[in-house]
Amino acid sequence: MGDTVNNESAQKKSFFKGLKSEFSKIVWPDKETVTKQTIAVISSAIALGLIIGILDLIIKFGLSFIL
């Protein structure tokens, strides 16, 4: 049982060393790229919301006309 405790602490240290080396490889986007992507996401969400809202109104009026 004592061996597994030592192996677990060694594995944890190794894991965190690997994690640190992987984080150093990350290339973060610059401010301009983040701004462009944020605007694209927000405008897409608004457009999709409007499309869903319009379709909902059309279906609602169509069902009330049928029923």
Output the helix-strand order. HH
Specify the biggest β-sheet. none
Helical residues, percent: over 70%
Domain count: the total is: 1
Number of helices: 2
Beginning-to-end CA distance, first to last residue: 73 Å
Q: Label the overall shape.
A: elongated
Q: Could you tell me the mean pLDDT? A: 88
GO biological process, one term: protein secretion
GO cellular component, one term: plasma membrane
GO molecular function: protein transmembrane transporter activity
Subcellular location: Cell membrane; Membrane
Describe, in plain words, how this protein is organized in 3D.
By secondary structure, this protein is an all-alpha fold. It has one domain (about 1-65). Helix content is about 90%, strand content about 0%. It has helices at about 1-25, 30-65. The longest helix is centred in the C-terminal third of the chain and has 36 residues, at about 30-65. The N and C termini lie far apart (about 75 Å).
Quick overview of this protein structure:
This protein has 67 residues and is mostly helical. Helices cover 88% and strands 0% of the residues.
